[in-house]
Amino acid sequence: MERAKDVVKRCLKCGFCVNQCPVYKEMKEEAISPRAKIRLIKAQMDGTLNNDRVLRKILNNCLMCETCFKNCPSGLHAADAIADLRVEFRKKYGLDWKKKLLKAALGDKRLRKLSAYWARIVYNNFVSNIPLPVDIPAGALKLSNIPKISKALKNQSLSGSNPKKVLYFVGCVDRFLFSDTAKATIKVLNKIGFDVEVSAEERCCGIPLMIGGDSGSLLKTIRKNVDLFTSRYYDYIVSSCPTCIVGIKKNYGEILKEADPEYYEKHKTVAGKMLDFTSLVARNVEALGPLKELCETVTYHDPCHLANSLGVTAEPRKLIKAVPGVKFKELRNGPSCCGSGGFYHVYFPEIARKIGKRKSDAIAETGASVTLTACPACKLQLINFVKNDNLKTKVMHIAEYLSERM
Amino acid sequence: MEKQLINSLRNIFGGENVKTSQEELIAYSYDGYLKESLPEAVVFPLKTEEVVSLVKLANEESFYITSRGSGSNLCGASIPKKGGVVLCFSKMNKTIEINKEKRYATIQAGKILEELENELTPMGFTYPVDLGSSRIATIGGSIALNSGGMKALKYGVTRDYLLELEVVLADGRIIKLGTKTKKNVVGYDLMSLICGSEGTLGIVTQATVKILVKPETRKVMVAHFGKMQDACNTINEILAAGLMPAAMEIIDKLVIGAVEDYVKAGLDKNAEALVLMELDGSKRQVEEDIVRIFELFKKNNATRSEVARSETENENLWLARKSALPSMARCKPICIAEDLTVPTKNLYEVITRLTELTKKHGVMLGLISHSGDGNLHPHFLIDTKEEEEKADRILEEITPLVVSLGGTLSGEHGIGIGKKKFLGYQIKETELNLMKEVKKFFDPKGILNPGSFID
Fold first, then answer.
1. From residue B111, how far is each of A1, A382, A406, B38 by CA, in Å?
2. ipTM of the complex
3. In Å, what is the CA distance from B383 to each residue of A37, B76, B412?
4. In what side-by-side order are the strands of the sheet with A236-239?
5. CB contact (8 A) between residue A13 and residue B19
6. How far is CA A294 from the centre of its chain?
7. A14 to B30: CB separation less than 8 angstroms, yes or no
8. What is the mean pLDDT of residues A91-95?
């Protein structure tokens, strides 16, 4: 609760975060704004609230996109304060069935693999092949809009082909659902001169557990991952999922500092090596060599954790513009959340749909035939919303885009 | 609030747009000012008729109404000081019309200034009232407080842009003030009276404002100074030279440090003062003015001065300036923003006195100034009740000087509850009584925004 206490104490209530919040933009009610969430957390700490029923609902209604942090001149992380409170509430009330399922699937290495395997079998053979009389919603997503699940990525050890070594932290989605992105990531990393390892010891990064307030399973997961990162020498630890990077780079440090000093020190030794895919490739853009010319209009959606939490916005643009002939068009009104927010869209599908619609309208305005992003969750959300609106734009991860043009 | 009354509100606004839970009431108990006070209900109108019904109900059932936009003001004007209903315009935020030929925009009260500007920019137009809080402030709120902001030096304040207002009076009648013509001298100028009345005379539901053609170009300049006096002299010499920047801002060392930590614009944290300036107009004129201004920077011992090289850099420097107030939470948890305004030539004198007073009382001071128009925002950074009282004493001691120089104790933030006790320093009894009569005439039962600056 230390983070929450600090945020609550220092918020001046200037309101700069309010209308930047994607949820506020749709609802236009102060109570769900980051400013009010901070004020209400204070009320909860002071003991002025009669009960916490409404507060729990309000705090769940957050995408954790950190747009408020980006717009806070005092640099306050409202999302951290909210996460602290969610942990308290989980201790008090336990998890609901959706989060219990998630915990079971993501908290254990083998179960994660098994769940993904069965999800693929069931989804690809039954759900996506049989035309359904009604479209089944999965949160804000339509089941029929979800692409077929690809086979899980295979582990690979370092080949010794290159002295520069990278541990590729694949993350659950790119490993088990969109392994095309993962394969493309490896191809690009090889091309710029890195020997790449995909480890069997990798666990879920833990962010879904953290956001859900499940601190117990989280610590176990974190320790296992830190063991992996420090098991041998790597030049970089890279992920194609920005949420994983925020988790392993920033959140691990904060959590371990309070919970496990020994692992905190261990984590500190490798934290500086953790990078998102676009940052590492942008540093080595010349090594990509000549890329195939492409005369297409391309736009780019900034993933929140990449743009807001890590401040990475120039690097992906540099990569997109490295492809000759590309006409790059920015989305209107700059970076804004796609409405996925991890499992937010499962709990608040109506708002998530509105936020997604705003995004697909902005994409439509650019007339882009390719829409790029750098996050698997954003990719899934964007695929869903451009399909809903019948847009003729292909949604891809930057890794796939580069690998196709190499 | 009684159940029956809540039901009446639901009949007017629909269940979704009436809020009564403890959490939602807390969310409307504050704005950008320090103090808080709980409402008994919050309602969201979508059209003017609903506001009329609410006012009629308030007359029948005797409850207070406090209007609110986004709650970003700094004087407590939108806090429900005596409870009652908060009338929040955030959902009544449509653009009714933007007319390029006749050069006006008609918008509902809840329209956020930044969003209006985003609609105008692609059309080649601008609404030049540019507030530090434009990203959150609504047009309704800025009319209630007659907001000024960064570019008042060249472009004036909110009041200068009003063409028409739709206002709901305290008895529920709707009045339409003004015309869409640029000239109009028929009758008393009630529109100017409503503007800046902090929601105490009527409820603005819709406005038509003048819009301007966006200037061909703009350039943002920054200069660092080793002495605050040099920075102030520069401002005065630029004005004396007949130059016409759109904005001239000064921030002091403490503020430079705080904003640089946020924006990372490459500002020199060791400088005692920084001048930020925007020039706009034709390319040729702007280029010529830049040369002359550089000379004045040099003459006044600027340690480093430069022109932003791109629109991104322009934006980033403005972000630094606009983040100045809220970034001060990096120093201390509470920040009291003051709003003294004096003739530009006296700026340095007042700054010197303020520095002495804050030293004497042991209060941390961060200075921001729209120096081109003499508007000075001393920020008292505090963390205890005791320090809050000290800040009050500093203000008591500085106010007579400000008034004697022909200045005002609030240039743009408003009085609200923040500066109510200082009103007597500036406004004589005869005028104050006249204002009280005006209030009584417009709102005999005193239901509109009670407790804000006038009773």
1. 37, 29, 48, 25
2. 0.94
3. 22, 19, 25
4. A195-197, A165-168, A236-239, A274-276
5. no
6. 28
7. no
8. 82
